[in-house]
Amino acid sequence: MPKKLKELNCKQKKIGRKCISASFLLQKMKFLKHILILIILSATTMVIAQDEDAVQFQAKVSKKTLGLNERLRVDFQMNKDGDNFVPPSFADFIVVGGPNQSVSHSWDGKRRNFTKIYSYFLAPKQMGTFTINQAKIEIDGQDYKTSPITIKVTKAKEKPADPNDPDYIVQEYIHLVTEVSNTNPYLNEPISVVYKLYVSPLAGISNYRELESPVFNGFWSQSMDDKRIKAQNGTYKGEDYRYVTLRKTILYPQKTGKLVIEPLSLDLTLEVPTNRRDIFGNQIKTQAHRTVTASVRTVNVKPLPEEGKPENFTGAVGDFQFTMETSKNSLNATESLQAKIEVSGKGNLKLFELPKLKTPSTLEVYEPEHQENVRTTMSGMQGKISDTYTIIPQYKGKFPIPPVNFSYFDLKTETYKEITSEDIVINVLEGPVYAEADNNLPLTTNGKQPVVLNQNQFAFIKTKTNFESITKDTFLNSPIFWTGLVGPLLAIPLALVFRRKREERLADVSGNRVRRADKLAKKYLSEAKKALGQKEAFYIALEKALHNYLKGRLNIETSDLSKDKIRTLLLERQVENTVINDFEAILENSDLARYTPITTVTMQQDYDKAAKTINLIDKQIRY
User: Which positions, given as ranges, span the membrane (predicted)?
Assistant: First the structure.
């Protein structure tokens, strides 16, 4: 082979070896790159999985800037179920809806996703910049809080006069009216206040809720609300309307001058037509929330006239009858009789004092027993009140009880009237002698008379004694000595038994859970009882009591509290079907009652039913 050809072959072989080495290194670098990418992706996946498993609890708002006549939605969202949710106070807003609770479960092929939301609908009270403070919830035994959110409220936004606009409907077709029977009454003269909601046939209301109940400052008041609210036909400003009477109250002004009757405010749920239609051509309606407030009314209270006012006048205003009588007029000393002062009729019976009974010092008089038999209607109070005195004479003789005067202001004649009782003489037949010469001596101004004493007036004092000597016992061999010696020794085995029982109790996880649930149920039942009359607080506490009780008794989590599962587990534990139906009915009532008008009587019935049903489940459940 020629020399040049050999050199060429040699060079080609060297280049080939270098190419093979370079190709190998390149393949190795690509392999290492793929491994590095896999490591980065695995680490990222682990971080994302950890982030997804972390508890998230946050607040979201529909908008951060709104007009004074707009509504704001606030959602408190979490990715794990929790207990004991505590919302912020919303002090700068009016809660017109909520809390509405929604729960959703989903599966994306890799893991289960859980979302729970508490929603509130708020109306601003005034313009300005306000803060929605933190909400709090307990998840897996740890407290979580949301971050505060700043909301800016601007002036009301102008809207065109659209017949389907909720604001236009409220202004034109819905009217909340305050009717006052008398705007110029006397002091303590009854007046009635009635709140009526007038709704035109052109408007539709599906529900309403009171935002604030009126407070009648300067008045004695009593509510006369009907348990049933019935719609009636009527007219408002000459046009046909349907109306309901929401509140009726009787008032007695307690001071003179101009007094303000506070308005009633309602949150209305309106049925508003839209421009859409269903497949049958009917117009589709949507719901909207609006606030309507009655007008403020002022009452000018006149003072009672000073001319002709008796000195013994105590504030009685109305039309009354007055009597004073005794149970008997003749008796022996140390026996008792009753003197009754009574006022009956129509007027402010609960708002004045009865005249006091005056008697001689020789008659022992006890504090009176006050009784009232008064019923209140829309025209005022009527009935009777009385003071009954118990009198015990001390001496023999005849003792007069001075007449009693009662005065009142008559609204019909607008004058004062005075009634005087008849003279009453108490004849004490037997007893200690009242005076030396005559038992019928007149009473002095200070009511004191000389009393003749008997010779044996000190006969009740003992002059002889029967003292006995007392021997001193030694401490040794006494019961106290042996108790102190043996007692600690006996306490040792008792302490060991107590310690063993305590360790067994702590090791009983299931039992401790049941006991903790019972404790929480009793706690929230107690809170519900204290909150009777406060609808929102009462039903929140009642619902917490029922949920905590079920979690402990059935050994389930909050997220598993479904109606079907509760029924299945209770039936497996031999609980009667009627008791289960009662329990489900209580839970449904707790949900519905927050959004409907509820009386205190209904709340008491729900509370009694919940306590009775829990007691029945305790007796019937088998493990």
Answer: 480-498
Q: Which two tokens stand for residue 252?
A: 């007695």
- Please say whether the beta carbons of 432 and 457 come within 8 A: no
Distance CA 201, CA 123 (A): 27
pLDDT digits (tens, 9 = 90+) for 504-550: 766 665 556 556 666 666 766 777 777 777 777 787 877 777 777 77
138 or 435, which is more confident = 138
Query: CA-CA distance, 269 to 209, in Å (whole number)?
Result: 9
**Mean of the per-residue pLDDT values for the chain?**
78
Given the candidates 3.30.450.20, 1.10.1740.10, 2.60.40.740, 2.40.50.40, the CATH classification of the domain at 57-154 is 2.60.40.740
Task: Classify the C-alpha dihedral 564-566-567-571 as positive or negative.
Answer: positive
DSSP state of 270: E
Q: How many CA atoms lie within 13 A of 211 on its CB side?
A: 24
Q: How far apart are CA 354 and CA 359, in angstroms?
A: 16
Could you tell me the CA-to-CA distances from 14 to 2, 20, 21, 26, 28 in Å, in that order?
Answer: 19, 10, 11, 19, 21
Cα 78 to Cα 59: distance, rounded to the nearest angstrom: 9
CA distance 81 to 556: 13
Smallest Cα–Cα separation from 182: which of 243, 237, 262, 250?
250
pTM over 0.85: no
Q: Which CATH number fits domain 509-620: 3.40.1350, 1.10.287, 2.60.40, 1.20.120?
A: 1.20.120
Q: What is the pLDDT of residues 184-196, one digit of tens each?
A: 999 999 999 999 9
Q: How many helices (H) and strands (E) does the chain have?
A: 8, 30
- pLDDT given for residue 274 in this prediction: 65
Q: Which helix (H) or strand (E) holds 271?
A: strand 265-277
User: For the chain, what percentages of helix, strand and coil (3-state, to nearest 5) are there?
Assistant: 30, 35, 35
Rounded CA-CA distance 399/330 in Å is 11
CATH class of 318-428: mainly beta
